[in-house]
Write a structure and sequence with these properties.
Blueprint lengths: L17 H10 L1 H11 L5 H4 L26 H29 L1 H20 L4 H29 L5 H5 L1 H20 L5 H18 L7 H6 L3 H12 L6 H6 L17 H7 L12 H6 L4 H16 L2 H12 L7 H19 L2 H4 L2 H24 L3 H17 L4 H9 L2 H33 L4 H19 L9 H5 L10
C-alpha cells in the first residue's frame, strides 16, 4: 500500500529476487487453474454435448478410448455442469480462510493440489453427467481455495511498495489459464480429444504439487503465529541475504520480531516457550461470522463483497464461458477463433495493466474498468441484436480490455489491504464467497436469460448493473494505495480496531 519508491528513494523493483519470482510463479498456478477450469468447456461445448463432431473444418479424431465420445446434454444440463464448478469453488473459498489462518498458507496451497488432480481425472474419464459433475465440483473446491489463499500469500511475501504489482499476478495467471484452455479448445474440440483438454489440468496440478515442495511459509503468518525467528529467516531468504529487512519486520506489528537473530532453526518448542513464543501463543483470528459483526471490520467486508460482486455481475464470465455459443450465429466459422483472440487480448492487457493499480490507485482503476465494461455492454447488445458482426467483435474486445484495467486484478488485492492480519483470512473468505456465488448465478442463468430475453438483450442488464456498481465504488470504496496501514486507510487510530 506504499508508493513505488522504497526507503531512501530506492525502487522496490530492486527487492525482486529470483526466489521471490519462483514463489510467486508456483503459488499462482492455483489461480491459473481457476481460469483454466472457467474456460475449459467454452470451445468444446457442442462437441461434449453431441451437437457437433468438430468446431472446425477438420474432423479427424481419435475414438480409441472405451468411453462415450460425447455426453448428451440439453442447455439446462450443460449449464448445471458448468455452474457446479462454482458451487465447489464456494465451498473451497469458505473453508480456505479458516484453514489458512490456523494452519498456514503453504499447507492450504498444498491441499488444493489434491483437488486439482482428482477433479480433472473425473472430468476427463467421465461417461455420464453425474461423474462429470463430480469432477467439476472437485476442481471447483481447489480453485475456490486457491483464489482465497494465494492473494494473501503473495501480499505477505511481496515488497511492501510492490503489493499492487505482485497482487495483479493472480489475475495475470487467471487470464493465462483462460487463454490456455481456449487455445487447446480450438485445436482439440473434436471427437474424444476434448477429454485431453480436461486432463491437462490434472497434469498442471501434479506439477504444482511438486513445485510447492520448494516453497516456504509466509513470514508474516509465521510471525503472527508463534515463530518470529523463523519468520525473519524466511523473509531474509525471500529478500536476499544482503537486504535490510528490519523496517518490514517492524511493520508487521508483532511482538518478539526484534533482536532475535540468535534463535536458530533447530530451536525446540521448549526453547521458544521460555522466550515467550510458543505455537499456542498465536495472534487471535476472527472467524467468518465474527468478522462480519465486528464494528471496525464490517465496512471492509461490505466493500470486498461489493467489489467482488461487481467483478462477476458486470458480465465477464458471460464472455469467458459462453462466447463461442453466444457469437456463433454472427460469426459461424470464426467464433471459436475469436474467443482465443479475446483471451489473448485479455492476457496481454492484464500484464500491461498490472502496474496501474500502484501508479493510479486502486479506486480509479476500478471506476475506469466498470465504466468501460458498462459502455461495451451497450454496444455488444446492439451488435448482437442488429447482427452487426464487426461491432460485436470490437465490443467484446473492449469489454475484456476494460476488465483488465481494474475489475480483474484489484478485487483480489483489496481484502488484504482493508483489514489487519487477524481478519484477513475471514475477509478473503467473504470476498471469494461473494465471487463464487455471483459466478454461479452468471454461469447457471446467463444461457437461460439470454434465450428468454432475446439474443444480446441481457447485456443491457449488465450495463445497468455497471451503473450501480460505479456508484457503489464511488461512495464506499476507500483508496488503499499510498497508505502505510489499515488504520490510515480508514482514518482511525490504531487502538480502535483491535479485537476485543
Amino acid at each position: 500500500m506504499q508508493p513505488s519508491q522504497g526507503a531512501g528513494g530506492r525502487s522496490w523493483t530492486r527487492e525482486i529476487t529470483p526466489y521471490l519470482v519462483v514463489l510467486v510463479a508456483v503459488a499462482t498456478i492455483g489461480p491459473l487453474q481457476f481460469g483454466y477450469h472457467l474456460a475449459e468447456l467454452n470451445a468444446p461445448q457442442d462437441i461434449i454435448t453431441c451437437e457437433k463432431k468438430s468446431i472446425s473444418s477438420s474432423s479427424k479424431s481419435s475414438t480409441s478410448l472405451d468411453i462415450p465420445q460425447c455426453i448428451p446434454m440439453n442447455t439446462g444440463q450443460f449449464g448445471l455442469v458448468s455452474s457446479i464448478f462454482t458451487l465447489g469453488g464456494l465451498f473451497g473459498a469458505l473453508c480456505a480462510g479458516p484453514i489458512s489462518s490456523r494452519y498456514g498458507r503453504l499447507l492450504t496451497m498444498r491441499l488444493t493440489t489434491i483437488f486439482f488432480v482428482v477433479g480433472p481425472a473425473f472430468e476427463a474419464l467421465a461417461p455420464s453427467i453425474p461423474s462429470f459433475s463430480v469432477g467439476r465440483f472437485f476442481s471447483g473446491i481447489g480453485a475456490g481455495a486457491a483464489v482465497v489463499v494465494v492473494p494473501i500469500y503473495i501480499s505477505e511475501i511481496s515488497p511492501p511498495e510492490g503489493k499492487g504489482f505482485f497482487g495483479a499476478m493472480t489475475q495475470v495467471m487467471t487470464t493465462l489459464g483462460i487463454f490456455t484452455a481456449q487455445l487447446l479448445g480450438y485445436y482439440l474440440s473434436r471427437g474424444q480429444l476434448w477429454r485431453l483438454i480436461l486432463a491437462v489440468a490434472g497434469v498442471i496440478g501434479l506439477l504444482q504439487a511438486l513445485g510447492l515442495t520448494y516453497v516456504i511459509e509466509s513470514p508474516k503468518w509465521m510471525a503472527a503465529n508463534g515463530n518470529p525467528a523463523r519468520a525473519k529467516k524466511n523473509l531474509q531468504n525471500i529478500r536476499g541475504q544482503g537486504a535490510i529487512i528490519e523496517g518490514e519486520v517492524d511493520s508487521w506489528g508483532v511482538e518478539g520480531t526484534r533482536g532475535e537473530e540468535e534463535e536458530g532453526l533447530l530451536d525446540s518448542p521448549g526453547d521458544l516457550s521460555r522466550r515467550g513464543f510458543s505455537p499456542s501463543a498465536r495472534q487471535a483470528h476472527l472467524g467468518f461470522i465474527e468478522v462480519a459483526f465486528h464494528p471496525h471490520y464490517r465496512p471492509a467486508i461490505i466493500v470486498v463483497v461489493g467489489v467482488m460482486l461487481a467483478q462477476q455481475l458486470c458480465g465477464i464470465n458471460s464472455i469467458i464461458m459462453y462466447s463461442v455459443s453466444l457469437l456463433s450465429q454472427l460469426l459461424p466459422t470464426t467464433s471459436a477463433l475469436l474467443s482465443v483472440g479475446v483471451s489473448a487480448v485479455n492476457l496481454i492487457a492484464t500484464i500491461a495493466c498490472a502496474p496501474l493499480a500502484d501508479r493510479w490507485g486502486r479506486k480509479p482503476c476500478l471506476l475506469l474498468s466498470i465504466a468501460g465494461m458498462g459502455t461495451s455492454s451497450l454496444f455488444l447488445a446492439l451488435g448482437i441484436i442488429y447482427s452487426l458482426a464487426p461491432l460485436s467483435a470490437i465490443a467484446t474486445l473492449t469489454f475484456v480490455l476494460s476488465f483488465a484495467t481494474g475489475l480483474g486484478p484489484v478485487p483480489f488485492i483489496l481484502a488484504s489491504e482493508l483489514v489487519e492480519q487477524e481478519a484477513v483470512g475471514a475477509a478473503q473468505g467473504w470476498a471469494l464467497a461473494a465471487n463464487w456465488t455471483a459466478t454461479f448465478v452468471v454461469a447457471q442463468f446467463f444461457p437461460v436469460l439470454n434465450a428468454w430475453m432475446g439474443k444480446g438483450k441481457v447485456y443491457f442488464l449488465f450495463a445497468g448493473l455497471a451503473v450501480g456498481f460505479f456508484g457503489f465504488v464511488t461512495l464506499f470504496v476507500p483508496e488503499t494505495s499510498g497508505k502505510k496501514s489499515v488504520d490510515e486507510v480508514w482514518g482511525r487510530k490504531a487502538a480502535e480496531r483491535r479485537v476485543d
